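*** Protein under study ***
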Amino acid sequence: KEKSLAHQLEIAERVRVELREVALNRPKIRLDELYVFLLPKLRNNVTFDTLDQNSLVSFLDGRDDVHEFSIIDMAGNEKIRIAAGAAMSASALKNMSRERYFRESVAAGFSLETAEDIDKEMRIVAVAKRFIVPELGNFIFRMQVDISRHLKDFSLKLKKEENELVFLVDGKGEIIDHYDEAQIGAPALGYDFIRQVLVLSEDDDESY
């Protein structure tokens, strides 16, 4: 029994580390890559208003997990949004000052949310971070990263390889990966321990 418990604890720690890499570290790295990609384009008095936004679309090359990204000023106005492989027109840009991620990023410097696309084929991590752009000031960079491929069959592999029954639940209490595929998308709030974990993790930046 002690050996079994030790094995379960070992698996739990491994799951935590792997999920942190997929759901937190990978989106953060993508956001940092965007910042490094963008800085050289804002030299010689170029601003977000004069920047050729179509030149930013190439950031998506080789990064097919990036669903979209945007840059917002400290008043909440979108300066740039690249989605579906194209730069949005000025008329399509919005004010995001009332959005939770914007308020969190302004106050704490960082925000992370999870979501699904409309057809539930993609599991999205939306990460936002406050950056200082030299000579232009503070801006919020936000990016939506698809982590679906990294989660696919995660629980099923653990069942086959380790003989452990593990399933993944997001911050809203919905099952996002399960060794029984029919359970994916179902609510998990019927489990007391799930509700307790969600309450305890409300102030954490990890949403799984």
Q: What stands out?
A: The mean pLDDT is 84. The two ends are 28 Å apart (CA to CA). Strands lie at 66-73, 78-83, 86-87, 110-116, 123-133, 137-146, 168-169, 175-177. The longest helix spans residues 2-38.
